[in-house]
Amino acid sequence: MSHTIKLGLDLIQTQTLIEKLMLDKIKAKKLDTYQIEVGEKLVVVTTYEKYFTRAANEASLTVTIDSINKFTRVHFVAAAGGSWLGKLDFAAEEDFESFIQKELETYKIND
After folding, report:
1. SS3 (DSSP) at 70
2. Given its phi and psi angles, is residue 100 left (phi above 0), alpha (psi -120 to 50 degrees) or beta?
3. N or C: which end of the chain has fewer CB atoms below 10 A?
């Protein structure tokens, strides 16, 4: 399931925070970052990957950050697959998504 939240941080602050959480806190690996300029605004798409030992599977998290409106919007979605027992992911997707959602909650703004 994907999630979109609005944050009270600028794009660079948001990107730095998410990267620190992903690389330092949960030891994910950054696979790729792609930036698109829309006029004077920026859109950043980054994909991370994490191997979950307990479930013997990998999960990826794709994060899209934009500041096209008055706020910074973060959209993220996780995907996972197991390597045994019928390719069950043992909730790795949900773990990845709930981690990032919980960590960003402090900076969330409402409409």
Report:
1. coil
2. alpha
3. C
Q: How far apart are CA 76 and CA 22, in angstroms?
A: 13
Hey, is 90 helix, strand or coil? coil
User: pLDDT tens, 29-51?
Assistant: 999 999 999 888 999 999 999 88
| Number of residues that this document lists for the chain | 111
Closest by Cα among 100, 108, 95, 106 to 20: 100
Q: Which residues pair with 41 in a beta bridge?
A: 38
CATH number of 3-106: 3.30.310
Q: Give the residue extent of every domain in the chain.
A: 3-106
* Amino acid residing at 16: T
pLDDT exceeds 70 at position 83? no
Which residues 6+ apart lie within 8 Å of 44 measured at CB? 11, 15, 33, 34, 35, 36, 64, 65, 66
